[in-house]
C-alpha cells in the first residue's frame, strides 16, 4: 500500500479564474509533491482583468471545514491567504493557534489588480491575532505599509520593515521586495539573522498568483521537513520558474505557470 505524501492545508479564498487563491495553492502543493487540502473562507468572481465580486463564508462554515480536516487527516503545514473579515481572521487564528504545525501567513490585502480583499477594520485582527501564531509571514511592500506604517522605498528599508512586522510576534518575516526599483531581493528575518533571496529580472507581465504561490510553496517545503531558510530558498526557486513561464490568459494579466517543471522536462 502506498504511503500518503505530506499533507498541506490552505485556508483562503477561491479565485474563479484559477490563477491565485486556493486554486493556485493546490496546484503548487501538487507540483511540489504534497497532498493539498482546503478550507474556503471566501468566494470571488475573478478573471484576468480583476475582481468583480467577493463574498465571505459564515464563520461556522469555516470552523466546520477546519475541524473536518484537522481532526481526521491532519496537516503537516498550514497556509493562510484571503481571510476577508475580522470575524474570519479571529476564527482561523483561534483554531490554528492550538494546532501543532508550521503556519505560513500570506497577509492578503489586495489582489494583483488592486481590488481590496481584506476589510480595513480587519487589519488589527491580522496584527494581533494571526501574526503572533505564524511561523512565517510573507508581506509584500504594500502589506508591510498596511500592517506597520513603514514605507519601503529602497533595499535599505527592508530590514527596518522586517523588524516592524516581527514586533507583532511571528517567528520569521519574509519581506518581498520584488517591486523595489533596484535588485529584486526578498529579506528573511527571525529577530537576529537575515537571509537574502534574489529573483531573476524578467519581462513577463503574467504574474497573477505570485504571492499565493510563494506562501504555499514555503508551507509545502516545511511539510517535507525543511528548516525555514531552506524552505524559502526552495520556494523562491520554484516561483521564479513559474513567473518566467507565466502565460497569457484572457484580456488582462495571466497567471504564473504552476506546472512549469512538468513542461520543462
From TrEMBL:
<dbReference type="InterPro" id="IPR013749">
    <property type="entry name" value="PM/HMP-P_kinase-1"/>
</dbReference>
<keyword id="KW-0808">Transferase</keyword>
<dbReference type="InterPro" id="IPR004399">
    <property type="entry name" value="HMP/HMP-P_kinase_dom"/>
</dbReference>
<dbReference type="Pfam" id="PF08543">
    <property type="entry name" value="Phos_pyr_kin"/>
</dbReference>
<dbReference type="GO" id="GO:0016301">
    <property type="term" value="F:kinase activity"/>
</dbReference>
<dbReference type="InterPro" id="IPR029056">
    <property type="entry name" value="Ribokinase-like"/>
</dbReference>
<comment type="function">
    <text>Catalyzes the phosphorylation of hydroxymethylpyrimidine phosphate (HMP-P) to HMP-PP, and of HMP to HMP-P.</text>
</comment>
<keyword id="KW-0418">Kinase</keyword>
<keyword id="KW-0784">Thiamine biosynthesis</keyword>
<feature type="domain" description="Pyridoxamine kinase/Phosphomethylpyrimidine kinase">
    <location>
        <begin position="15"/>
        <end position="257"/>
    </location>
</feature>
<protein>
    <submittedName>
        <fullName>Bifunctional hydroxymethylpyrimidine kinase/phosphomethylpyrimidine kinase</fullName>
    </submittedName>
</protein>
<comment type="pathway">
    <text>Cofactor biosynthesis; thiamine diphosphate biosynthesis; 4-amino-2-methyl-5-diphosphomethylpyrimidine from 5-amino-1-(5-phospho-D-ribosyl)imidazole: step 3/3.</text>
</comment>
